[in-house]
Inverse folding.
């Protein structure tokens, strides 16, 4: 989607991906190597002017190796921060951005003492997570007692874990922001996200009843983070809403699934604004074009004709093969009213099981 | 632009182009051969399910050769009709669609008699054109007398010419329409076109003062033509407005430059609707998203930052090298009012000389 947004700007692309079946495989002459092949990374860097990434589990070592040869945006420091839940929550807290209570588990000398101390900080129930490489709800477990926590620690591997306070949220939102090299910043309207089995299913803008005060607070948090990291590109922050207040859950230093609706739903898409940011062009307007929702296509594709027959529906298939729980596309719906939008989303939910 | 619209629908592309520097060269694994290499055309057909074209000077022989192996849309008969101004105007006239008066020159046994007879039909001044391969105002000459016509006939090659009545038009419009395999038809709003030195410079929708009766008449003409040709895909018809009535100038059996604004300016772009049509999917809404204008970038590219700094401007560069009078990109402007739109277009005209 970055390339599709970039070709009209006159840009040319090369992709580095370990998977020869990656969605971008058809879109340019690409390189398929693992991130640990330093020679391949160096050759890749030589062939391009500028490097970005859209996958937050790119090894930081690879990003730094590339950054020594060509500019890499967003900055590898942001990538590093986002890859370790302890570092991430520590950095957010240090900036005064609320997060769930958290404590490390599994890296000290006395596991029992760590467990007791962690529970003292988070209370129960709590959520045990791997510090690294978690996504779509993988590598995490809700625990209600010390005994359950002990079992979960053993199951998840005993080290590099984090215990987080269980958040009884009323809603989940995400804020997409962008900052260019010159420091210009823009924000998209907050979107409300609905997950299913830990996987993002639906994102929806909140017009006309947007939570005005939450938008301003979310933007102030994002601004702190963008400046602290001297950030360049699109940044997503996921929030829980607890008793009407925002609690930051995690950040993603990249274009984000909860912003895919911007292709049709905003004046400038997150993909184009990411490219504008890393090329230091003026950022584009993030204004909504109507009432917008997005539905992820998970597992297998729906009948194309049925989707295109629904007014306001815009289909995006990624060219990925079908597999349970795999996000293989999304549908954006753009309508004039919330009622029309909800009707279309409900019709689409029935055909994209 | 067809490919960029098609990738999100899950489509894969191969391009056949004689020019290895064609804009699509970066977007897929392509074949670069002349249209007369039958073996190459046959191999191309074997590698795809369906074939379309976006250049009306593709030789009809190549289109027919391909069509014997795979479906080719729009139908080669439409391509053939559009390539010969005599056949084209004859077909339009036969359907009752008004055209300028016209007469062939240069294919009879007595050139003097042909010239006299042609002038009798068209009057003077008149426009002498080559019957084939004309575009962007090339291969045509306005003549005010029989002597000028004689000179022009010699200059343009003496055969395969057409003399057309000179049309003193108040405006030029084009109508984009689409028809899918099942016969579903849709129309875009008429756009007003402004040419500069024979080359399309600006296309602009006419909101809120759209010429309502002209829209209905243009649609009725298009409907006749779409059905007559059993047409599949996007069809453009260019009209002159003379004394408030529409006179058809020419047709283009393809996505058309005067419809490039639909990428941002309509709910569904002409490119997506062309693909929907040839795949027999339901056609998408052609509703305007606001006040829309398009400016062609001719010759050399403007500074990207300056373009992107203008509110509502969306840049499209085709990856073509600079050359005088060559269309190398376009800019769409989408705004809330005609005033804002005109201001933005004027600002853009200053930076895209």
């Amino acid at each position: 989607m970055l390339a599709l947004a970039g070709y009209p700007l006159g840009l040319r692309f090369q992709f580095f991906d370990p998977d020869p079946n990656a969605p971008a495989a058809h879109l340019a002459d690409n390189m398929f190597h693992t991130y640990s092949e330093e020679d391949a990374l160096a050759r890749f860097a030589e062939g391009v002017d500028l490097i970005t990434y859209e996958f937050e589990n790119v090894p930081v070592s690879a990003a730094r190796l590339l950054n020594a040869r060509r500019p890499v945006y967003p900055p590898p420091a942001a990538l590093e921060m986002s890859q370790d839940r302890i570092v991430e929550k520590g950095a957010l807290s240090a900036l005064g951005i609320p997060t769930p209570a958290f404590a490390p588990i599994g890296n000290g000398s006395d596991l029992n003492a760590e467990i007791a101390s962690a529970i003292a900080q988070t209370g129960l129930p709590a959520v045990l997570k791997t510090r690294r490489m978690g996504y779509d709800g993988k590598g995490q477990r809700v625990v209600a007692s010390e005994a359950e926590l002990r079992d979960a620690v053993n199951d998840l591997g005993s080290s590099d874990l984090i215990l987080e306070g269980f958040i009884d949220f009323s809603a989940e939102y995400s804020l997409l922001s962008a900052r260019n090299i010159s420091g210009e910043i823009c924000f998209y309207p907050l979107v409300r996200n609905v997950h299913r089995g830990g996987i993002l299913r639906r994102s929806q803008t909140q017009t006309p009843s947007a939570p005005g005060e939450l938008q301003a607070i979310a933007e102030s948090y994002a601004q702190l983070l963008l400046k602290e990291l001297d950030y360049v590109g699109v940044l997503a922050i996921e929030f829980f809403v607890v008793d009407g207040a925002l609690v930051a859950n995690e950040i993603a230093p990249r274009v984000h699934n909860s912003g895919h609706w911007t292709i049709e739903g905003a004046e400038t898409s997150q993909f184009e604004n990411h490219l504008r940011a890393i090329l230091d062009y003026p950022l584009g307007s993030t204004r909504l074009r109507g009432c917008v929702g997005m539905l992820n296509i998970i597992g297998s594709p729906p009948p194309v004709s049925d989707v295109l027959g629904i007014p306001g529906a815009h289909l995006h298939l990624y060219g990925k093969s079908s597999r349970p729980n795999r996000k293989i596309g999304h549908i954006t719906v753009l309508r004039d009213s919330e009622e029309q939008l909800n009707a279309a989303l409900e019709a689409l939910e029935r055909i994209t099981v």
Observations:
- Residues 2-82 of chain A form a domain with the Rossmann fold fold (CATH 3.40.50.20).
- Chain A has twelve helices and 13 strands.
